[in-house]
Amino acid sequence: MSHTPTRPTFLLDGQPIPFEPGQTVMQAAQAAGVYIPHLCHHADFEPIGSCKVCSVRIQGRVATSCTWPASEGLVVESETPALNHDRQRLVQMLFVEGQHHCPFCEKSGNCHLQAVGYHLGMQDTHFVHERPRHRLDASHPDVMLDRARCILCELCVRASREVDGKSVFAIGGRGLNSELIVNSPSGLLADSAVAATDRALSVCPTGALLPKRVGFAIPIGQRHYDGADITQRPEDT
Ligand code: SF4
Asked: Which class would CATH give 85-216?
């Protein structure tokens, strides 16, 4: 009589999570249907651990779950008041560093940043709005880039390089001066290789990169996160 070998497990908030060797804590949690808040992580792409929203406490130390390898017997805490407080502060910082006016944004209802904010119970932006100037790029006939909505998650950078095979995007500058830059002679989308059908656009978690002329194709109320918490609809793009 044959039997399936028992998979190794770790504990996430007291729940045993089975994993395959090589999986991260985030990947194993997602496979088990357990939600850990995140922004720069996407199942289709290599993790970079930059947004820190998926930080969990592992054996007493804080680490990004998207990059931490799962291992037998690990004790991981995620849904704690302290961690969710810090996650909310990170999301609030993103809101004040950019300009995220959800009621006026075509991505509202489909926006991962907005959905994570709702999930964390964010009622205000807490910090003083910086309102920095962000360069808008409307030069392309079919694609627009509003850097005021960009959270520097690098998903478009990874998608353009790995899926579209174009490497249209990169992050330039340092610290608060970091911004998404475009690989073209002028630095504008108009003479880059980008196309509205690129994975780089569909994977953008906010309204920073959008195809033109498709406003309200999906009515408000019928969008991905409308009427349901992100834990019920985790994979969105
Ligand atoms: Fe992320 Fe979108 Fe900004 Fe690209 S444009 S870094 S996908 S938020």
From this structure: alpha beta
